[in-house]
Amino acid sequence: MKKLSIYIHIPFCLRKCTYCNFVSFCNKNDKKEDYVNAICQEIKLRGKEIGKYYDVTSVYIGGGSPSTLKEGQIAKIMSELKNNFKLLSNCEISVETNPGSVTEKKLLEYKLVGVNRLSIGGQTLNEDILKILGRHHSVKDTKMAIKLAQKIGFENLNVDMMLALPTQKLRDVKKMAKFLVKKDIKHISPYSLILEPTTALYKQVKSGRVSLPSEDASVEMYNYVFKYLSKKGYHRYEVSNFSQPDYESKHNLNYWQMGEYVAFGLAGHSYLNNYRFANTDNFEEYIETVKSGKLPVVSKEKLTVGQRKDETLMLALRTAEGLNLKEFDAQFNCRLLTDKKKEIEFLTRHNFISVKRGYLRVNDNAFYVLNSIIAKLV
Ligand SMILES: C[S@@+](CC[C@H](N)C(=O)[O-])C[C@H]1O[C@@H](n2cnc3c(N)ncnc32)[C@H](O)[C@@H]1O
Ligand code: SF4
Fold it and tell me: I need a surface site. Which of 90, 174, 248, 314 has the fewest CB within 10 A?
């Protein structure tokens, strides 16, 4: 049986953070029920088509903020999934939460329906920065969400933290990293801020109202997190993903290993049978299309062998394990070490990459130029 990961997009938030360009809305509270019904319908339609061919290894309910759904709505989605797909007994089931919308009742519901991994968007433990970012929660809410999740028995917890934020200092990053380690958080995702042109923060920075840390200060923050977490027994298995041993996210790993996945919901992107396809990102169109019994796919593309080869290499180099040369050569009928001899020699000589035990990997100190390294090799 083939393996499959499932992503479910929940596009609702309490408030739009100033830096975020994810597909999410804070003015559609009255549409949640219609949306959840549409998701269930889409799961049924897709399930009829492919459900029997796959074993599901991971489910990721992300967003937006799935924790802003009303009580019972995650349970409804999970029940539809279980009716239409075969979830393996060790399936990793994650839900993304915003600390401002976490309640004990909701977490108990998640636990009851089989969710076994929670992700909490903490971002920073500096109250002033949370305000600048327009986050709809306090530091106390983040601490409370972690406490509640652990009390209810969610052992496998991820906390997102953000680096290179307005007015952020190295000491803020140190404080948060230390706190998370002390709380024995199994998985930590530090994201360096990406200043997205469509966001409010972009305008504030461009007009000089808000300033960001320098490039050097931002690199220092990331390097600190890397060194500190490594010392504390965490392993960086991808640029922005650190975990204690055996707590790597199966769902994330599947993306980087070019495994198959199907996404439900607004703007979901899927990869099945060498085809990439995308759902509409228009909220009303999504609901109406699914209601009328059709899948909401608006674009579909079959990847060429060349595209698959480049993507396989690009995704594998994001991971600490790197690219399995034997498998890569066999899959694409090539000899990477010979075909890219000049580039690989240059990158190795300058300590950017290494080739060891059949894997080509980016060296720890070179992840900051990852995109340039990839550009040389594809
Ligand atoms: C869907 S959100 C997580 C859950 C929830 N919506 C929240 O924010 O608390 C995914 C994560 O992406 C990260 N993120 C979003 N926009 C970003 C940006 N522009 N630059 C870097 N990280 C970003 C944040 O760390 C956020 O926690
Ligand atoms: S809560 Fe999360 S998804 Fe929603 S706007 Fe903020 S960062 Fe984006």
Answer: 90
